[in-house]
Design a protein that fits this description.
The structure is a homotetramer. By secondary structure, chain A is of the alpha/beta class. Chain A contains eleven helices and 15 strands.
């Protein structure tokens, strides 16, 4: 850790800080410069965090050398983690597509949609029973009834299911009905929820928040692993930028960055990431090409009647076409469909 | 509501959409142009939301004319709302300063800090018992013990207290101990939490999320009002931008924008908004000048030892100076200290 | 064009605005609503721009229905434009890779680098003689000498050359030495420069500005076409966001969005777009997959000694590997190498 | 300067880098850690820039300790610089308001507007003869004729004039007609233009680019000072963010940040910064309160007929009201009107 002192910092202040560093068992380093004095601390700098040196009046800024996450770091765990989504492998040499509607609306909608996506090659079924919606007057999801439908349909088609959990109180219920939890972008830093999911052993698909740097996403995943659940799948789904042509800016750069920093699998959601049906296919292919381990794709049996996110949902035949077109990209990326 | 059709949309598709609009009791409007056909719908366009027309394959985009919020809108409620924070008025002609440390660390820390801020003129006490922290290895707050200390100290100094609630399950406990709830930026769109707070009648300070547009903040407030709690105080605390000189970009433009769109009071948190101690005073003055109804300021009896956010906490003497310097700005803004 | 009036706008103000619309030969439309009056204008709304209605005190906002660009629009020109870069086709079914160092540093550096990239399959040579640098104390390029070296080397290897022009006064000189002009991100809205390049018939690679929406890029291209030069190649090279893991955020969504809005070819610069050598290859593949027409790749014979942007430059052997790995992606995208 | 090596960097690579540091006359520092080796270089790190160490394959990242600017830095020049705008002092204890229309449209428009702003207390006249416009089909300014009108009107009212220069070739002409140059946001990194203006001794108002960090603005100013012109006035005018309620996000945090880093005066343009007439007054007051040295305000004799930016232009009577209301804020800020 590097501690840059203010221009007017005194030698006495530097000595006080060096003493605090030494007291923690770290090796302090004194580097007087012509315009600034810089201090260093050699050793596990996570210990140094507890000193909160950035609040000291003589300190201009603290520059950590290492990321603050450990368990999710590739440095500690060089090999790719493969998470089993009810038997479907996510990560490593595998490529998996999870599809389904934004929201569970009815048994019939789920049956029709699931038949279509399974036939086209999807290996997981997604569908929300609890929908975080910007407006209190919009459809909020079917709740428990939605979970029941999801389970029935997933069982009927022998597919693992993925559904969003928005609240600690619902974790137990969702765990009962679904194969895996999804944490939405708005809850990426709902740390209580992350801790609760860390107590489970079911897989967690953790979506990147709209204002979250990649390292923030990795720190959020660290919460889950730190509680004991290693089955985390990261998900890029777009960040908030000034561009308005897309609902969000799908940040595919995150895929190779995460691959270099973490051993966890990463999937991409081009449906939420772009918010536009016509952009889903090209961005899905791009996700494969830059190294993603899978895709979350919104498909609805009739998007023109969907109760949420119809604008970004594929028609079943569009999804089937996409799956066919994806195949050579998956092969070129050196992966095989799960 | 304006519905722009795709270039290749057919007359039959337009007719189908017009029929759906008419079936809702709205007046449909057909506007064929040289390059595009545009449809209109006159009447309460919130009804039209239920049609989800943007998912229709012939629709390029839907442009609402009105904001989706009602209860928070100044159009429905032209006069400024004044919220009582345990007797301290927030809004209208009043200007209130709420101060205190980021986190409740100990009884002694709270007693010392509170004595100082009260003497300097603060009218409310803030302090967190539950701290959402980016790292699972950082100090997470004292929890219930923190709430007990906060209540004891607030009672001792006869000040209303404000503390963050991060989880539906904690609402009851926090309500028991504190005068008002704070919803942090990361929870601004935790809609379950908002609904739970809507069931209370205690004031809620709702902080703007880091990726939230101003209208997103107003929609989040609508959740609380829609459940029956009118006592909402909005809070600008900085948004996520590319600038790195400040921790966040405090967006003071939000103050006059919100004043024009909503009747709710708005306060500003320059401590989180900038993340830098030296910037707190100038931005606090600017907040007064552009029309804010109050300030949340982090003050710690010894920031160099603070367990969180020491870098942005004022020393007690800095806070006293700020309060003196604020007075002429408050007068110039036509307000009086609560 | 849709004109939303303020809540308190009078009927007389609406009539005044309707008269102004009618006076231009457009068909005015009056749509009184329960909460707002909305006006419409049917016809070529670009004419309406000249009325500057958004400055009127009764107008809340003006919502155009159509984009303001014409010549670059796919609506006016449905087929893909193919630009010839000195005989190398860019656009349509072709895929072209242009490579070379950030800056021309010496004849030897250019000879060595060009030999390597040509052998690996690059079809165009890039290299800057004028370098816009953030710091006045950094290497600013060799100027005319750089142009001479570039031309000599390009001629020697029979490759078309691409180099940046930063100033109207240099257009003539650059035109003499290079096959094509590059307009850098910082000059995307240097409208004088765009007009000057519109007078040429040599191809222009127009890079997206760091704060430019996609429609801003298309409007900038419109400047060049409006002056008579149809040979514009758009270039996505990253936008400014809050993410710091990458130097910029390469926004690949721009590729399919531009393909839907414009007939112009679009290439991607993953070197500047990410700023990190290790990210160039995966993002290059992703660019192919989402439909890009080509790539600009920085390659330097010894990046560890490069005078600029060494961090993002590939070693020659890395470039050769990338070219081999790109082939199946190009095939999967239904394109063939130029 | 701190050089963080990659995890797999060898001791030989570290030694090579240390030797390169030492060869420049800087003191190298070797700091082996448990997970990373960190190198340091003590001395003038601007020298080290020339080594371009970040391109080295063993280097993960380079963290400079000091900013790269010198001449604009407050560290080198602790006292506030006061720039004379044709006799009107900008900076230090002074507060100056420069007003006028976005564009010079006609002699009559300028005469009427200038009479009004002078009567209300403005001390400088702004008006554009060259207008960089997003669309090639929009009004582009009157050019030389506009400069002539500007000069005539400014002379008539004995006010200094400020006008934008967009191109090196125009510098001489603008210098002849105007008291001071304005560099617009889109040209902030037009380094050739900055150098040309550095050759003049007339004041330069340098506007922050929409994607420019504060340090980028200071580096741009360094270009002008490095050429010999010390008369630079910085201008905050809004940055590009995701918020759409305002045209740009006026970042007032930049004012105190710049005051801490530089000795140069800083003015604020709330007209472009917000793009909304109703927001100009509150944000102007906020600019005063956080320490700005002046304001640029757009005023038009009839904004409803303005050829550009009418939406953000004040009516003359609104400007007069603003000037009256500003007075107590200027006094509270410890400044006096120029």
């Amino acid at each position: 850790m590097i501690i840059v002192l203010k221009r007017n910092a005194t030698k006495a202040q530097a000595d006080e800080l060096l003493a605090r560093i030494a007291a923690l068992g770290l090796k302090p380093l004194y580097m007087p410069g012509t315009e600034r004095t810089v201090l260093g601390a050699l050793g596990d700098e996570r210990i140094l965090e507890s000193l909160h040196l950035d609040g000291h009046p003589a300190v201009e800024r603290v520059q950590p050398i290492l990321a603050q996450y450990k368990l999710v770091s590739r440095e500690m765990h060089p090999h790719d983690t493969v998470v089993s989504l009810g038997g479907v492998p996510i990560g490593g040499p595998h490529f998996a597509v999870i599809a389904g509607p934004c929201a569970v609306e009815s048994r019939e909608q789920m049956m029709t949609t699931t038949a279509a996506i399974k036939a086209a090659g999807a290996r997981g079924l997604r569908g929300g029973a609890y929908k975080p919606r910007t407006s209190p007057y919009a459809f909020q999801g079917l709740g428990r009834e939605g979970l029941e439908i999801l389970k029935e349909v997933a069982d009927h088609y022998s597919m693992p299911s993925l559904t969003e959990v928005v609240e600690v109180a619902d974790v137990e219920l969702v765990e009962e009905y679904a194969t895996a939890f999804q944490v939405g972008a708005r809850n990426m830093q709902n740390f209580r929820l992350l801790k609760a999911l860390g107590q489970s052993r079911k897989p967690v698909v953790l979506k990147r928040g709209m204002a979250a740097r990649i390292d923030d996403l990795l720190m959020a995943a660290e919460y889950i692993l730190a509680e004991g659940n290693p089955n985390v799948i990261l998900c890029e789904r777009g960040i908030q930028t000034f561009e308005t042509a897309t609902r969000n800016t799908l940040d595919l750069n995150a895929v190779p960055v995460i691959k270099s920093r973490s051993h966890l699998p990463i999937v991409v959601d081009p449906s939420h990431g772009t918010g536009v049906r016509e952009l889903v296919a090209p961005m899905a292919k791009a996700a494969v090409a830059c190294g993603a381990d899978g895709l979350l794709i919104e498909v609805h049996c009739d998007p023109s009647m969907a109760l949420s996110d119809g604008k970004q949902s594929l028609y079943p035949e569009q999804f089937a076409t996409l799956m066919r077109e994806l195949a050579p990209f998956v092969a070129a990326a050196g992966k095989t469909f799960s």
